[in-house]
Amino acid sequence: MNKLHTLDYITIIVYMVLMSGIGIFLGRYIKNIGDYFKGGSGISWLAGGISNFMTKFSSFVFVAYAGIAYSDGLVAITLIWSTIFPSVLAVFVYAKLWKRAGIISPVEYLETRFNAPIRQLFSWSGVLLKVLDDMLKLYSIGIFVTAASGIPFETAVIFCGLVVAVYTVIGGFWAVIVTDVVQFVILFFSTLILVPLAYHAAGGIAHMQDVIPDNMQFLNGKKGTPFFVFVYYILIIIKYNGNWTFIQRFYSAKTEEDGKKIGWLSAGLFLIFPVIFLFPAVAARVILPELENPEMAYVALCLKLLPQGIMGLMLSAMFAATMSVLSAEYNVTASVLTRDIYQRLFRSDSSPKEILWVARIMTLAVGLVVTVGALYVGRFGGAFKANQYLTGIFSIPMIIPVIMGIVFWRPQPWGAIATLVIGIATGIALNLNPQISWEMATFIEIIVCIAVFLGSGLFLSKDEEYLARVGRFFKKLASPAPAVVDGGDSGVLTGLMMLYAFAFLVTGTLFILMGFPSASNMSGQLAIGSGVICILAAGIFYWRGRGTGAGEV
Fold it and tell me: What stretches pass through the bilayer (predicted)?
């Protein structure tokens, strides 16, 4: 395969500098732990919805899902559409509950709902699982970058890991949200350039139907069987609604209605954009029929169809996808380390200034541990084998008490512990049996965990203090949360509008400059057109920032 050129490296460097600059700029608006971990509850539904989408969209999509798209076709879109339903469920159930809980970390409520040991158990185990999961994501982008550019794997991992850590440590949740929006734009336009090129190179839909008829069906291959799809959808509904970054978007919203809008926007993006992102990988089966490794379909197609400079934009989009996930994960994991472990166990009387410093130190620590750990993932069978075990064995029993405990009041503390212990044991036993398929093992584990947790509610506690505390908590959940009155500070909003204007100006200029060398080709013309749109958007943000300062982040 071809490798990157000078223009590509320039694009990637400018992108990295832009992301770091955003974090450094936003550090000036961080005054307390509420700003650092939930943006002062001033996150608009538009930015929150885009961020929610981006935090679920890592290079895993461009590697694992692209591999499925290459091998089996449109079934990859069927599988990724499973992400629509967690957002819809959040609209009707979870968005209001997380907002009403009044929390700063996703497991903070567990002490009120169950008890202090439960909060600590799920905090420590959750942090461990998050860190391991983040290692896999960073490992994936390292593999992708190495395949595309020839850059040593260690260099790619360290470079990407440290850039994410820098802007997240300084800018906190504001940096996560703003960079997610900018990264979404880069990802969208970069991929949009590739789609018509892939369509043309594959000879159009009719030719694809003739060459790969089975792959043009939405249920095809082993992963397209009805039972596999059913179990996968149930798993994603559970996994996403229990994902800490997913929860964080809803309790950081300005109002309950904004939280519902975040859910609807996320669902809409999950419906539309998988088609755009995965179509090139489906077309790659026609364009590059002899590809040895299906998971390299995306990078191979990019290297074949995209000229220099624009390839750098696409690789920046890959960075954008994974960096959005990692920055959000670093921030929310640090919130648990700071709020649920350090402040709860060691320094309950810590000053606001101290706790903000601790928050930044925890974020940096998470970033460093993930970066170092990612260098060694390959020794344990690679990212996707490890991800299968993490999700199929550990995630389900850890998530069910969290997402069901805020809905049902009867299940007891011992039920949460039993769900964790019995669920993990069941998952290990089932996955070690080669006669049991992954989907059957996962389905059984889900049923067992739900049965154990809800079953604990058949035996009501005799602890009057516990019952009174839980009663007060669910009474709070039944009452609408008050709207945030300080989330719309005009100085912050003006600064953010100007930051968006600058970021979109840089992004647009980058697209135009990288498109000019290929202006005679479709790819160059699309890049220039994308750049013009970004610059027009920059003008709109600048106008809003120069106006009254009113608006939403």
Answer: 12-30, 42-68, 74-95, 138-167, 173-199, 225-242, 262-288, 355-377, 389-408, 414-433, 440-460, 492-514, 526-543
Closest CA to 492 of 55, 53, 43: 43
Q: Is the dihedral of CA 507, 513, 517, 522 positive or negative?
A: positive
Provide the residue type at 147 as one letter: A
Compute the distance between CA of residue 429 and CA of residue 316 in angstroms, rounded to an integer. Answer: 41
Label residue 350 left, alpha or beta by phi (over 0 means left) and psi (-120 to 50 means alpha).
beta
Residue bearing tokens 């809803």: 250
SS3 of 107, please?
A: coil
Smallest CA-to-CA distance from 322 within 170, 134, 190 is with: 134
pTM, 2 dp:
0.84
Determine the Cα–Cα distance for residues 308 and 442; give it in Å rounded to an integer. Answer: 44
pLDDT digits (tens, 9 = 90+) for 439-454: 899 999 999 999 999 9
Length of the chain as a residue count: 553
Q: For residues 129 and 396, give the distance between their C-alpha atoms in angstroms, rounded to a whole number.
A: 12
Residue of 38, 55, 69 whose CA lies nearest to 179: 55
In single-letter form, the type of residue at position 528 comes to I
**pLDDT range class, residue 382, cuts 50, 70, 90:** very low
pLDDT, tens digit, 9 for 90 and up, residues 342-376 = 888 787 778 777 888 888 888 888 888 988 888 87
Taking only the tens place, the pLDDT of each residue in 28-39 is: 667 767 667 766
56 by Cβ neighbours in 10 Å (0-12 / 13-18 / 19+) ranks as: buried
- As a whole number, mean pLDDT of residues 389-403 equals 82
The yes-or-no verdict on residue 129 having pLDDT over 90 is no
| Range with the largest mean pLDDT of 223-227, 349-353, 490-494 | 223-227
Nearest to 419 by CA among 121, 32, 102, 146: 121
Question: Rounded CA gap, 470 and 465, in Å?
Answer: 9
Q: How far is CA 136 from the centre of its chain?
A: 13
8 Å CB contact between 110 and 121: no
547 phi and psi angles, rounded to 5 deg: -80, -130
